Amino acid sequence: MKHTSLVTLLAGISATNAGKSGASLLARYSAPACSNAPSTLSLPDAPYDNFFYSDCNVAAQAVVTTPLLDSDLTQIGPRLIVAWPAGNSGACWFFAPQNGVNGSLSIALVNSTVGNPLAPVYSSAKNGSANPSVGVKSVLRFNSSAVLTISILGSIRTIRDFTEGPSILYPEIQDAITFTTNGNGVQLNRLWLDNVTSTTLTFQPWGSDSTGKATVVNRTVHFEPGDYLFSAAMSYPQMTQLEPASVLNSRSADLITQMPGQTAALSFLSYSEKLLAGAWRFLTYFGRDSMISALLLEPVLSSGSGSAMEAVIGAVLERVNRTDGSVCHEETIGDYATWTNEQEGIYSNAMSCDYKMIDSDYYLPVLMQKYFLQNPLGKSRATAFFSTQAGSVNAANRNLTWGDLALINAERIMRLTGPFAKEQTKDNLIHLKAGQIVGQWRDSTYGIGGGRIPYDVNTALAPAALRSIAALARGGVYPHEKQWATEADKNAKVWEDSTLQFFEVTIPRKEAQSRIDTYQTRAPFTVPTNTSHTIDSDVTFHALSLDGYDSLAQVQVMNTDDCFRHFLLNTTNEAQLTSFLNQTASNIRRTFPAGLMTSAGMVVANPAFGSEDVYAQNWTTGAYHGTVVWSWPLAMMGKGLELQMARCDPKTKTSAPQFCHDASVLGNVKAAYNSLWDSIEANSQQLSTEVWSWVYRSGEFDVTPLGVMPPPPGAGAQTESDIRQLWSLSFLAVTRNEKYKS
Ligand SMILES: *[C@@H]1O[C@H](CO)[C@@H](O)[C@H](O)[C@H]1NC(C)=O
Ligand SMILES: *[C@@H]1O[C@H](CO)[C@@H](O)[C@H](O)[C@H]1NC(C)=O
Ligand SMILES: *[C@@H]1O[C@H](CO)[C@@H](O)[C@H](O)[C@H]1NC(C)=O
Ligand SMILES: *[C@@H]1O[C@H](CO)[C@@H](O)[C@H](O)[C@H]1NC(C)=O
Ligand SMILES: *[C@@H]1O[C@H](CO)[C@@H](O)[C@H](O)[C@H]1NC(C)=O
Ligand SMILES: *[C@@H]1O[C@H](CO)[C@@H](O)[C@H](O)[C@H]1NC(C)=O
Ligand SMILES: *[C@@H]1O[C@H](CO)[C@@H](O)[C@H](O)[C@H]1NC(C)=O
Ligand SMILES: *[C@@H]1O[C@H](CO)[C@@H](O)[C@H](O)[C@H]1NC(C)=O
Ligand SMILES: *[C@@H]1O[C@H](CO)[C@@H](O)[C@H](O)[C@H]1NC(C)=O
Ligand SMILES: *[C@@H]1O[C@H](CO)[C@@H](O)[C@H](O)[C@H]1NC(C)=O
Ligand SMILES: *[C@@H]1O[C@H](CO)[C@@H](O)[C@H](O)[C@H]1NC(C)=O
Ligand SMILES: *[C@@H]1O[C@H](CO)[C@@H](O)[C@H](O)[C@H]1NC(C)=O
């Protein structure tokens, strides 16, 4: 990369647009009129303040971080981020107090005649280049003299490499930033590695009595205290956002007024090309997140051409690996794609995909069945949808249709599930990919304790995908594989009936009690000690995974992944079904550490029954997949138990499963359903966020942000929970069924 040529090029662009006057280049062009009012959301989450702005021209999120009196000043400093879903793009600025005393500078975006606090920026296409430069502007207030120490302009992934990794900055990206002063203001600009797109940032003193002045010394910007008109824009092509009325189906339009915050967030994350996994760090395609969300939200999502359902399924098919049928977990697009390609010596802006997850493959047929067989609008769309040519986003799939890619994915599932259907050995279960330490939703380093064979994939996702492949084959979706209509069903039955036993853990009552007592002394935080009376029988649960670290044959952590079987399958092995449902119910009803329930919600992992020390050490209240509460498993468990109970009201009582006739088991399930919903309702404030933790004090589990808990041993920095996540919006569709209220 020749930096001198970049600077020359930038000077040219700047002169062309700003003209001789030197006025802000962003102010001169007016944006195309939008037919709907802009959508805005303000979500304070101290020390973070989140603002979302979208209209028909631009969608962006701004996050301002400013230290509080009790902030850990080694972790929390003044920071401003602007994130655009388009291209997974972002810009990030770290500020420091000029006097060097951490905590003495506060920054804020304030309401003004510019916006409340955000307003759009739009500057029409430069000569010849097709894309306008779009973003947001606002008034930024510094309460004392400040220094802009680091700017990262381009991709959210480059920002995450700095904020989450060991503070990596790439000279090739950093050195391409140009600094230009303009009166008392300053402009920063970076041309992306694609040589076409640029990110532009300006600061101008704001207000008639402004004391503000920005100066550049040695590529560092210095600010006098005061207000500045701040604007951030970039010229990557924007996507088409699905407005609340087009992301929801018409039956669900009332949600726009009933749950305005959730529908606005859903709309912000929804585009005609794909749904995004969550706010700023995840404002892009993630396969698992979008499919779990679509499965749970299907009753309220729009269907048909250009709908939310088709955005999800189309985005997944477009990105399937054509060679082996794997579903893409996360895409790499925008500036980071060019960067990644360059590291391989390739000069291309082509996107790429990460295929390390194994669970995502199995959600696809299940979602296709839900849409193309069970949804009337989806049914009518199948032929047109499957003949869509792939390649418009993922050039690697050119010459294939989405239907071809659906077939390649189903072939993969048939191939990987074949051996176990023939011979039920542990070796024939589905393993993580070689060399990968994660592969399903608990994708932190020790999330499933290093296990190679995950519980959810083997006992629920694989059989559910096979059931769906059989149904899709009967529906004519795989015209050349008609035999799957029976073969996949036959194999599904084996996977349903013969996998749980590999994971089952049964601990006699006395031993269970003694393990809880030991856990109470081992847990590196306070846990309730008066739960003894709740262990009234042997304890049964299913291991998170097999073949874990520390020679654990079974990773014996009680967990919520039973929800996948309840939600996705109607199994028919009666004795197994009865005891499986009963143990889920018992584990939900018992208070942590005897079970999964806390007043902060149902925890996704409970290590108390593991006999080795490592369980209590690794699955903590500070671990991303530890003894913490995630929103979407609450929704999936609630819905799953409801679907199982619904099997007890068929037209003919005799066809109901046996558990329906066992009053104690059905009562246990119903009690668990209600205990779960009571806790969901008690924690409604948290539900739209990703994950939260707790601290036990005065007999209560007090909700506490995960970000402030100490990370478990072996984990680097703590993870910031996400203010809004797609799958945490599932409660738009999943509600308590009053019929089962006790
Ligand atoms: C001051 O803030 C910086 C940046 O956030 C941090 O790296 C440093 O550790 C802090 N120093 C002290 C003494 O807190
Ligand atoms: C700016 O805000 C910080 C944090 O609230 C505070 O400690 C500091 O005293 C303020 N500075 C001025 C000059 O008001
Ligand atoms: C800024 O304006 C928004 C929207 O009108 C309003 O909700 C918010 O309370 C205002 N903030 C302040 C600090 O006045
Ligand atoms: C368009 O911009 C480029 C720099 O990006 C410049 O070299 C060229 O002369 C411009 N063309 C016109 C017609 O202004
Ligand atoms: C961008 O331009 C530089 C310098 O001319 C060139 O080396 C590089 O290959 C170009 N990058 C792409 C992605 O075309
Ligand atoms: C500018 O930065 C360079 C490298 O960091 C340093 O050597 C030089 O002394 C600085 N100059 C001024 C005027 O601060
Ligand atoms: C697609 O799958 C094949 C076969 O497993 C693998 O070799 C290839 O690397 C994958 N493609 C990508 C882009 O990861
Ligand atoms: C698609 O087909 C065209 C023409 O048959 C061929 O040139 C091209 O290489 C193919 N692309 C891919 C990705 O297979
Ligand atoms: C527990 O965490 C430690 C790191 O502190 C790691 O070495 C060990 O393998 C982990 N064990 C399990 C079962 O996750
Ligand atoms: C259901 O679980 C309870 C423990 O909560 C146990 O006492 C009962 O025996 C179980 N019933 C069946 C049928 O497994
Ligand atoms: C399971 O049964 C319930 C109740 O009849 C039904 O609503 C649900 O769709 C069924 N699930 C599957 C995967 O067949
Ligand atoms: C445990 O004790 C606390 C008081 O310390 C009480 O509030 C709570 O209800 C008790 N929990 C159980 C399960 O008995």
Please tell me about this protein's structure.
- The chain is α+β, with helices and mostly antiparallel strands.
- The chain folds into three domains: 6-234, no CATH class; 244-494, no CATH class; 502-740, no CATH class.
- The protein has 21 helices and 28 strands.
- The protein has an eight-stranded antiparallel sheet.
- A hairpin with a 2-residue loop joins strand 1 (39-45) and strand 2.
- Helix 13 (455-474) runs antiparallel to helix 14 (484-498).
- The protein binds 2-acetamido-2-deoxy-beta-D-glucopyranose (NAG) (12 copies).
- One 2-acetamido-2-deoxy-beta-D-glucopyranose binds at residues 398-399.
**End-to-end separation:** 68 Å
Overall mean pLDDT score? 93
Shape: globular
Helix content: 25-40%
Unreliable residue stretches: 1-28
Structural class: alpha+beta
Number of helices: 21
Strand-residue proportion:
15-25%
Radius of gyration: 27 Å
Features:
eight-stranded antiparallel β-sheet; disordered N terminus; globular; 742 residues; single chain; seven-stranded antiparallel β-sheet
Give me a quick take on this structure:
This protein has 742 residues and is α+β, with helices and mostly antiparallel strands. Helices cover 32% and strands 19% of the residues. It folds into 3 domains: 229 residues, no CATH class; 251 residues, no CATH class; 239 residues, no CATH class.
